[in-house]
Design a protein that fits this description.
The structure is a single chain. The protein is an all-alpha fold. The protein is built from two helices and no strands. Helix 1 packs antiparallel against helix 2. The protein starts with a helix and ends with a helix. The mean pLDDT is 90.
Length: 60
């Protein structure tokens, strides 16, 4: 994995964490709905990227 991919994943993860923090701070705190939204958004964002970039690099 080259440096550009690592920086891109890092920026995306930081933005996602910031949005999760905002959801918890202004969305009513920790409840099942917010936890579900955080987990679902993480799966939607990171699993396809994992399959496209990281798993492909491991197969080579």
């Amino acid at each position: 994995m080259n440096a550009v991919k690592i920086i891109g994943f890092s920026v995306l993860a930081l933005v996602w964490l910031w949005l999760c923090r905002t959801l918890i701070a202004y969305g009513g705190g920790f409840n099942m709905k917010n936890i579900f939204l955080i987990v679902a958004s993480g799966i939607i964002i990171f699993v396809p990227l994992w399959k496209k970039y990281i798993r492909r690099d491991n197969n080579r």
